[in-house]
Write a structure and sequence with these properties.
The protein is about 50% helix and about 15% strand. The protein is built from nine helices and seven strands. Strands 3-2-1-4-5-6-7 form a seven-stranded parallel sheet, sandwiched between helices. The structure holds acetoacetyl-coenzyme A.
Length: about 240
């Protein structure tokens, strides 16, 4: 089949697992990354997946990135908005910069990339967009007003864009991961993380591959009737 798929933040953590799963399923994958050249180049070499460095929080940078991917692989038919950062701290210590960086990287990026691929998807009458939200966007989380606001925004963005794409074969869905065993989660202070995991009914962190499995399900050609939905993959932490 060989549809072209772009995964933002696709060389590490959950994104890497999604890139690999899509490649294994026969998609032509472009894995975007922002900064870590060493990790991205090692990933490209090991997995045979093309990597593209651009800043998803900048519309202009995304424009250049999408043009490069189109020239190499063809127009993007599957977009996975996965790139995300944390700048955790309580609001009384949060700087405007910490607020802004998280909103731009986690939420504005979804606008930037969707805006840049949507015309092509509408013309071809086919598109799949999956936005990676978070349990913390659904339930809130102490120390994350910026991240929770951005992720919650992703869920609203998904439902609005799903309505716009529906008659044009463009489905738009979200996945809300719980706490997954990635560098981002390992950065949470161990005593705090222990308390969080204690409240997860399944009793452990999730694996990145368990999120990738959900993405594959939502982007399949056969998933044409699934749009505007949120798939929670969180070990039962929050039932929404
Ligand atoms: N609810 C209520 N109170 C809490 C709390 C919570 N969940 N977490 C911490 N507190 C309280 C503490 O008990 C403590 O109170 P006292 O001073 O009275 O003892 C106070 O807040 C300060 O706690 P810390 O010592 O932890 O303070 P800190 O300033 O060093 O750190 C923090 C604050 C940065 C928020 C830190 O607690 C933290 O990193 N928390 C984890 C946040 C988190 O879960 N981030 C998720 C990252 S992974 C991710 O985001 C992926 C995803 O999508 C799931």
């Amino acid at each position: 089949m060989g549809r072209v798929a772009l995964v933002t933040g696709g060389t590490r953590g959950i994104g890497a697992a999604i890139s690999i799963a899509l490649r294994d399923a026969g998609y032509k994958v472009a894995a975007n990354y922002a900064g870590n050249d060493d990790v991205a180049n090692a990933f490209a070499e090991k997995e045979g997946i093309k990597v593209y460095k651009f800043d998803v929080s900048s519309f202009e940078a995304c424009q250049v990135g999408i043009e490069r991917i189109a020239a190499d692989l063809g127009p993007v038919e599957v977009l996975v908005n996965n790139a995300g950062i944390t700048r955790d701290t309580v609001i009384h210590r949060m700087t405007p910069q910490q607020w802004d960086e998280v909103i731009r990287t986690n939420l504005t990026s979804c606008f930037n990339l969707s805006r840049l691929v949507i015309d092509n998807m509408r013309e071809r009458n086919f598109g799949r967009i999956v936005n990676i939200g978070s349990v913390n966007g659904q339930a809130g989380q102490y120390g994350q007003v910026n991240y929770a606001a951005a992720k919650s925004g992703i869920h609203g963005f998904t439902k609005a864009l799903a309505q716009e794409g529906a008659t044009k074969g463009v489905t738009v869905n979200a996945i809300a991961p719980g706490y997954i065993d990635t560098e981002m989660v390992r950065a949470v202070p161990p005593n705090v993380l222990e308390k969080i995991v204690a409240k997860v009914p399944v009793g452990r962190l999730g694996h990145a591959s368990e999120i990738a499995r959900g993405v594959l399900f939502l982007v399949a050609d056969e998933a044409a009737f699934i749009t505007g939905s949120t798939l929670s993959i969180n070990g039962g932490q929050h039932m929404y």
